[in-house]
Write a structure and sequence with these properties.
- The complex is a heterodimer of chains A (257) and B (14).
- Chain A is mainly beta and 257 residues long.
- Chain A contains four helices and 20 strands.
- Helices cover 14% and strands 46% of the residues of chain A.
- In chain A, strand 3 and strand 4 form a beta hairpin.
- Chain A starts with a strand and ends with a strand.
- With 14 residues, chain B is mainly β.
- The chains are: A mainly beta (257), B mainly beta (14).
- Chains A and B meet through strand 10 and strand 20 of A and strand 1 and strand 2 of B.
- Strand 10 of chain A pairs antiparallel with strand 2 of chain B.
């Protein structure tokens, strides 16, 4: 059997919000390591990869590796039925046709039990090679969300340029041009609120704001976001979630024809 | 003109 109990159930709600607009359906792969998911959006332009490590649950039991084929919209609807302070347990049999979500209130006076049918999903798993990135930019997650929101008012795409002066986000549209420049903070330790840039090579790449905006749905999960950029490669946008794992998004760049 | 690339042109199936 599979059983994973998450004391901070609100995390599962937030993970769900962070993927449901990007991915329609996906397999949640449950193993001894934890719960992982990898899926592309329907147009195969972006990819989301998440890991919830087993030690983030209490308890976690996985007798046999299983894949839970889940329709994200349906699961998101069920997750909305959980209160923010509920403890969430995910449970299924070894050869499951369905999965059960149990929501317990903190004082255990209320227990909700939702059973959801599973789907057979042909998952296309992509191997993501270790990449030497030209620039790794860490910044407050809320700042990145704000930049994506503001530049979406100007154009469809953002050009991310990183050099020794800092990082610049720029967008261009019918009405004009918008540019947002961030300098690296003087303090080097990576505390919340800091912008830090690890630069190997100056780099400039263009990405669709529509997808970056989908990625920023993960903002409630982490205070910091990391953008790893490399010439002619997808950008990796990572939100590390304390004590349990991460959600990473990859987005293919736009190129000039 | 900017062309959106797809994910599969970068990563192989595992």
């Amino acid at each position: 059997m599979f059983e994973a109990r998450l004391v901070q159930g609100s995390l599962m709600k937030k993970f769900m919000e962070a993927i449901k607009d990007l991915v329609k359906e996906a397999n949640w792969d449950c193993t001894g390591t934890g719960i992982s998911l990898q899926a592309m959006d329907t147009s195969h332009v972006s990819l989301v990869s998440l890991l919830l490590r087993s030690d983030g649950f209490d308890p976690y039991r996985c007798d046999r590796n299983i894949s839970l084929g889940i329709n994200m919209e349906s699961m998101a609807k069920i997750m909305k039925c959980a209160s923010n302070d509920d403890v969430i347990t995910i449970r299924s049999e070894d050869h499951p046709d369905n999965v059960t979500f149990v929501f317990e209130s903190p004082n255990q006076e209320k227990v909700c039990d939702y059973e959801m049918k599973l789907m057979d999903i042909d998952s296309e798993h992509l191997g993501i090679p270790d990449t030497e990135y030209d620039a790794i930019i860490s910044m407050p997650a809320s700042e990145f969300q704000r930049i994506c929101r503001d530049l979406s008012n100007i154009g469809d795409s953002v050009k991310i340029t990183c050099n020794k002066d800092g990082v610049q986000f720029s967008a261009q549209g019918d009405t004009g041009i918008g540019k947002i420049a961030l300098k690296q903070n003087a303090v080097i330790d990576k505390e919340d609120g800091q912008v830090s840039i690890e630069l190997n090579d100056p780099v400039s790449l263009t990405f669709a704001l529509r997808y970056l905006t989908f990625f920023t749905k993960a903002t409630p999960l982490a205070s910091t976001v990391t953008l790893s950029v490399s010439a002619k490669n997808p950008v990796a946008v990572e939100y590390r979630v304390d004590d349990i794992g991460y959600i990473r998004y990859y987005l293919a760049p736009k190129i000039e024809e | 003109l900017l062309i959106q690339q797809g994910m599969k042109s970068f990563y192989q199936f595992a």
